[in-house]
Amino acid sequence: MFLQAVKERNPGLIDYAAQLHQTGAILPDTYVIDVDQVAENARQLQRAADENDVELYFMLKQIGRNPYLAKKVMEAGLEKAVVVDFREAQVMMENNIPIGNIGHLVQVPEAFLEQVMTYGVDYITVYTLEKLRSINEAAHNLNIQQNVFLRVVDEEDNQYPGQYGGFKLDELENIITELKGLAHVKVKGITSFPCFLYSSEAGKIIPTPNLETMKTAARFFETNRIEITEFNTPSCTSVANMPEIKRLGGTQGEPGHALTGTTPQHALTDLAEKPALLYVSEVSHNYDGHAYVYGGGYYRRGHLDKALFMEGDHREESKVLPFADSNIDYYLEVEEEHPVGSTVIMAFRTQIFVTRSEVALVEGLSNGNPRLVGIYDSQGRLLRR
Length: 385
Known about the structure:
With 385 residues, the chain is α/β, with parallel strands linked by helices. It is built from ten helices and 21 strands. It has two domains: 147 residues, Lyase, Ornithine Decarboxylase, Chain A, domain 1; 176 residues, TIM Barrel (Alpha-Beta Barrel), CATH 3.20.20. Helices cover 28% and strands 27% of the residues. Strands 1, 13, 14, 15, 16, 17, 18, 19, 20 and 21 form a ten-stranded mixed sheet that branches. Strands 2, 3, 4, 5, 6, 7, 8, 11 and 12 form a nine-stranded parallel sheet that branches. Strands 9-10 form a two-stranded antiparallel ribbon. α3 packs across α4 and α6 packs across α7.
């Protein structure tokens, strides 16, 4: 589905990515990103945010924590990043990218707290009283007051395995006295994840129960004289969802996949953001009637369906076969045979930071003068220009 979207809305990206592979400028297992389109998507997002009085922090883990892209997104109007974990924070800090929110999905390690607070972040998202104590101590040592978000959860909330954590609603009464006594910590907002999800049945993005949990927590804190000014509402942040964020009381969104036009909704609908990313591979060999293409960038939640095979002027699509979660994606298996060495183009939702892929940034597609800016690793570090 994502491949069809790229074919229809950004065909020049396919052509230039194939040219890069066929001339040896990039190797298989490389994501190619259209920098111009990412910047335009960012402008569209910021325009919608301004219209709805929503603050945006951009997320880049899914496209490889790339500092060059971060700076282009900032030039387009999104001023600060949200970092998924401390490794991503290190990349942003090394490249002087302002950080708005840290700790949202991965808590800040103890030994990193003073370093990141010295660098300066708008908010640290916190799951536990123990972490609040540590932040308070670090802030005391630095002679500052640190603003925090509290992640809150309830029994019916959506949570993903590997991401469990937060203050349960029925625990808030037990922490309020100590919380109010932490002189160097100021609770400014409430957050959860995910606050929105795409519903294929409804054909649109819908709110999750997590939003009601956030509102309940906010009422509790306000009753206890802690003013909540921020409702941080991540997941599925896009131009299409901005009015809904505002309607439901959200003050902040965190666009990630919208920057490359790869939210679930983008696979099915032409939205304001256009696709800006694809994956390039190559046929390694054929075996028992199936082609095997180089892997390394596969993401099991990416909804990979078909691949486009290109040899000279010939183009042909084939179905990519699924394999067990226990397998490593040394190769991706395809339904039919294809000539060895053929270029393979795929498009799917990804999380580049968990892959072993390289990332090629391309500029100039928007004006017909494309050029390869540089090749980076999956953690945003420049490998070669």
